[in-house]
Design goal:
Elements: H1 6-19, E1 47-51, E2 54-58, H2 68-78, H3 85-98, H4 102-107, H5 110-117, H6 136-145
Antiparallel strand pairs: 1-2
Helix pairs in contact: 1-6, 2-3
């Protein structure tokens, strides 16, 4: 893994925790939990699963559960050679920047960053997509466990 600012490393770990991909095999996980076999490209497999009360079909894959179309945007913007763990990390950082959340992450403004990113990652607190999400407390715990420093007070309400 590339050398990252401690808060960036921790926020990427938080996303992987929320997406259920924080373990060793997370970078090769399809939506629904099965593994894919090659990092040559996004696997582009449509998987249908029940999540909560909903049935969802998704192409999400990898540590950040990137949709095939989102991956294509990232790959083109960054000229990524493959779907390797390093390319997935670079794509996630690109998405943080695109959501205008990277500076918040670096500064430890955890709750502001989560608010900006919960439309990108459906498992983050406050996401509008109706899929199961982690709590703010679990997000903070994952962030600090991975070495992040939060500089914000928890929002009320």
């Amino acid at each position: 893994m590339m050398m990252l600012h401690p808060n960036l490393f921790a926020f990427l770990f938080l996303i992987r925790t929320a997406e259920g991909t924080a373990d060793r095999e997370g970078y090769s996980r399809l939506f629904g939990g099965k593994q894919f076999g090659s990092f040559a490209d996004h696997p582009r497999q449509k998987v249908t699963c029940r999540l909560g009360k909903s049935t969802i079909t998704s192409t999400a894959a990898g540590a950040y559960q990137l949709l095939a179309g989102t991956w294509d945007e990232c790959r083109q913007a960054l000229t990524l050679p493959d779907f390797s763990p390093e390319s997935q990390d670079r794509a996630a950082i690109f998405l943080l920047r695109r959501r205008d959340a990277l500076q918040d992450v670096l500064a430890g403004r955890l709750y502001m960053a989560l608010e900006k990113c919960n439309h990108e990652w459906a498992s983050l607190p406050g996401s509008p997509y109706g899929q199961p999400t982690i709590s703010l407390d679990k997000a903070l715990a994952a962030f600090t466990q991975a070495g992040g420093t939060n500089t914000e007070e928890k929002p009320h309400g």
